[in-house]
Amino acid sequence: MSARNTGESGVPGVMNYQVRAQVYINGGNQTVANNRITVSGAASATIVLSIASSFNSYRDGSGGDASGRNSATFNALPTTDFDTLFSRHKSTWQGFFNRFSIDLGNVASLSSLATDVRIQKAMAVPDLGLISLFVNYGRALLIGSSGPLAVQPANLQGIWQNQLSVLWQRYVVFLPPEHD
User: 107 and 170, same structural domain?
Assistant: First the structure.
């Protein structure tokens, strides 16, 4: 899928983007027709998505080559074997994620609850483990969107947080001062 932004307030749209999928199968058949990929009789299928835009900087949204960037992504794949790709991804991910840890304590009766229920209970009962969960959630989003190969830094508004009142702004825990 390829597209171009529409522009706004008299400024023409100049940025284009492309989403490309490659399907690698183990046995069986693969056909492409009418913008649809059909896999039949395969022992497994690995779908790799690559998304790129022409964005270079805030001054120039048209100078990059989205298609070329996607081609480079697929050309750089060391293999198309899912287990190998996943193992490589996991190793890279853990290399970043494991650099830091946070443990503010957990209450077993709260940590086993679904997150939405836990958030509601935290308004009345302090849940320091929920703060740790939020920190790790934010870290996971940033690693996934601003990792070492990212062209631009992440913006955690918009797709991840589409409301004006953000959850992490509403949930504030006041810790009592330490006593000697």
Answer: yes
Q: Which of 42, 48, 37, 45 lies closest to 77 in space, CA to CA? A: 48
Burial 106-121 (b: 16+ CB within 10 A, else e): ebeebeebeeeebbeb
Residues 6+ apart with CB under 8 A from 154: 141, 142, 145, 146
Asked whether residue 90 is assigned to any structural domain, the reply reads: no
Q: Which residue is associated with the tokens 């998505």?
A: 49
Q: What is the dihedral of CA 16, 33, 26, 43, to 10 degrees?
A: 120
pTM greater than 0.85 (yes/no):
no
* Shared domain check, 8 and 62: yes
Supply the range of the domain harboring residue 30: 1-79
Interval 137-169: pLDDT, tens: 888 888 877 776 666 666 655 555 656 566 555
